[in-house]
Design a protein that fits this description.
mainly alpha; 2 domains
C-alpha cells in the first residue's frame, strides 16, 4: 500500500511538472509573439521613415468628385503646412478616394501608386482636368460666344 501511495504521489508530481512546463512554454510563446509584433512595428516605422501615416490621415480633406482640383490644392497646402514627407502623400491621399478616383488608383501599378505626382495626374486625366481639356473647353466657350455675336 505504501508503494501505491508513493506511486500516486510520483504521478501527481509528474503531472504537476508537466503542467508547469506547459505553462512555461505558453508564457515563452506569448513573449516571443509579443517580441515579434514589436519588431514588426519597428520595421514598419523604419520603412515609413518614422512617419506614422495613421496619425496624419485624419487631416486629409474629404475627396469630392465634383471638385477634384480643389481637393488636390487643399491637400497639397496641408501637406506643405504640416510638413508631411512628400513620399508619403500618395499613401495619405488614397485613403479618401471614392468613385472614379478609387478605380483609377486601384488600376495603377504599385510603383506608380506610390508616386504622388503620377497618382494626381492619372486622377485629373480621369476627370478630364488636364491642360488639354481646359483648352478644349475654352475653345468651345469662345466658339459659342462668337456664334452668338
Amino acid at each position: 500500500m505504501n508503494k501505491e501511495i508513493r506511486l500516486k504521489e510520483m504521478e501527481r508530481e509528474m503531472q504537476k511538472e508537466k503542467e508547469e512546463r506547459e505553462m512555461q512554454k505558453e508564457k515563452e510563446e506569448r513573449e516571443m509573439q509579443k517580441e515579434k509584433e514589436e519588431r514588426e512595428m519597428q520595421k514598419e516605422k523604419r520603412d515609413t521613415g518614422g512617419f506614422d501615416v495613421s496619425k496624419h490621415v485624419k487631416f486629409v480633406p474629404k475627396f469630392q468628385e465634383d471638385n477634384v482640383e480643389k481637393f488636390f490644392n487643399h491637400f497639397e497646402k496641408l501637406g506643405e503646412q504640416l510638413k508631411w514627407p512628400r513620399d508619403k502623400w500618395s499613401i495619405l491621399i488614397q485613403s479618401n478616394f471614392t468613385g472614379k478616383a478609387q478605380e483609377v488608383y486601384s488600376a495603377l501599378s504599385i510603383e506608380d501608386s506610390m508616386d504622388y505626382d503620377k497618382v494626381k495626374k492619372a486622377i485629373l486625366q480621369a476627370y478630364e482636368l488636364v491642360p488639354e481639356a481646359y483648352r478644349q473647353n475654352l475653345e468651345s466657350i469662345v466658339r459659342r460666344i462668337h456664334k452668338h455675336t
